[in-house]
Amino acid sequence: MGLPSPSVTYQFQSLELKEFSFRMDGLFVPSPPDVKLPLILIEAQMQPDERLYTRIQNELSTYIHQYQPSNPVVVLVIYPERTIERVIANLSNYLAYWGVHRIYLAEIPAQQSLGGDLLRLMVLPPAQVVAVGQDLLRRIRQDDAPEDYVEWVVETLVRRFPQSARSKIMEMLGLVELKQTRFYQEVYGEGKAEGKAEGKVEGKAEGKAEGQQQGEATLLLRQLSRKFGSLTPAQTQTIASLPTTQLESLGEALLGFTVQGDLDDWLESFPTG
């Protein structure tokens, strides 16, 4: 199974195989959903790794076992350059059998392809990531690119700086950049406005916390609606009532959801009281 043609639209998600402590760098799913098209697992490899292809084999098997996807699955390995790759015996047979494809970013001219530069963000030296991310946000607005690209930039930096909170990542990228996108205006603006209104009555600190919770809940509800369509009233009510810490856990979990039943399973198994 090869990669689909460039005319096919995909949506980016991040992905963690929690049970087995495997964390992949991303997942592209067809948008709109189409079981005939492959899911594309992303693995960004910045350093030489003699056991990379063995690890990919394990991660791919784990993903298929854990999520039982209806789509075929392929893997895209992103290297900064060819010298990083460590070739294994019978590599061509391995690549064909496991559906593994490779990209060498040094062979893609910078600043000529927004898609190529979004991929390059995953393997740049840390000192360059924030500045390049800010530039990508500017180009996304300028080119009127899909707002999923903004999510890609934010999620990539969350992965690159795992010790920093998402709010800190947004500050690093520049709040002005993000607030000018319709997606973040709708999601965070709504929560902020509601929190401000509550704060007038209950106090500034409590209103701010409430606004953060409502903003997180609104964001997740929008993401879930985009992923699965309309949610049931019970699902919406339950998610809207979750505290911020559990909303963050749901935000991580939803990245691995493939059907709406996964959401029901999470809501039933995760402690909500």
Summarize, please.
This protein has 273 residues and is of the alpha/beta class. It folds into three domains: 1-107, Trna Endonuclease, Chain: A, domain 1 (3-Layer(aba) Sandwich), CATH 3.40.1350; 114-180, no CATH class; 193-269, no CATH class. Helices cover 54% and strands 13% of the residues.
Describe the SSE topology.
Layout: E1 10-17, E2 22-30, E3 39-44, H1 52-67, E4 73-79, H2 91-98, E5 100-104, H3 114-120, H4 126-142, H5 148-160, H6 166-173, H7 175-179, H8 182-202, H9 204-228, H10 233-240, H11 244-253, H12 260-269
Parallel strand pairs: 3-4, 4-5
Antiparallel strand pairs: 1-2, 2-3
Helix pairs in contact: 4-5, 8-9, 9-11
The mean pLDDT is 77
Q: Roughly how many Å apart are the termini?
A: 45 Å
CATH topology-level fold name of the largest domain: Trna Endonuclease, Chain: A, domain 1
Distinct helical segment count = 12
Rounded to the nearest angstrom, the radius of gyration is 20 Å
Question: H/E element string?
Answer: EEEHEHEHHHHHHHHHH
Strand content: 5-15%
Structural class: alpha/beta
Shape: globular
Number of domains: 3
- Please give the largest β-sheet: 5 strands, mixed
**CATH architecture label name of the largest domain:** 3-Layer(aba) Sandwich
What is the strand tally? Answer: 5
Parts with pLDDT < 50 across at least 5 consecutive residues: none
